[in-house]
Amino acid sequence: MMDISTVLVADDNPDDLELLRRAFGKAGFGSQFHGVADGRDVARYLKGEGPYSDRAKFPFPRLVLLDFKMRQMDGWEILQWIRQRPEFRRLPVIVFSGSDYTADVNKAYDLGANSYLIKPPTLEELLAAVKQIGEFWLQVSKLPEHPRLTKPLPEM
């Protein structure tokens, strides 16, 4: 049976978000895809604030796919923010970037990324990558329970 756990994708490029949405759908993991284009919206989504306060509509994600180039808070800042909060520390975060610079890869892992993937150059390769992400992270991997957010979280 296919796991339809929520994936939060953060990328400020609307074309990339749409391509990822379609790729997740074609790979069979699209029903719980949520995309945001702004680093602060990642934080709001995770905290269940503002437009993301309805957890039935915006469930806590099982996985975050994160690009580093975003408005407001960039991916480096949001990854660091996630890892500094006990309630989110175990949340798997995959950096999904166009950069293959060793310094970026090292920095991502130093900040607590669970994986670093380079955005594939073709649609066919993107679909294959998304299928592998979904199968590994949403079906095969045993992940920690979602945090129980019982009290309001501090402001950023």
How would you portray this structure in words?
- With 156 residues, this protein is of the alpha/beta class.
- 37% of the residues lie in helices and 13% in strands.
- A five-stranded parallel beta sheet has the order 2-1-3-4-5, with helices on both faces.
- Helix 1 packs across helix 5 and helix 2 runs parallel beside helix 3.
- The chain is globular, with a radius of gyration of 15 Å.
- The protein starts with 6 loop residues before the first strand and ends in a 16-residue tail after the last helix.
Order of helices and strands: EHEHEHEHEH
Tell me what portion of residues adopts beta-strand conformation: 5-15%
Overall mean pLDDT stands at 87
CATH class: Alpha Beta
Q: How many DSSP H or I helices?
A: 5
Main sheet properties: 5 strands, parallel
SSE inventory with pairings:
Layout: E1 7-10, H1 14-26, E2 33-36, H2 39-47, E3 63-66, H3 75-83, E4 93-97, H4 102-110, E5 115-118, H5 123-140
Parallel strand pairs: 1-2, 1-3, 3-4, 4-5
Helix pairs in contact: 1-5, 2-3
Structure in a nutshell:
The chain has 156 residues and is of the alpha/beta class.
Keyword list:
13% strand; 156 residues; 5 strands; Rossmann fold
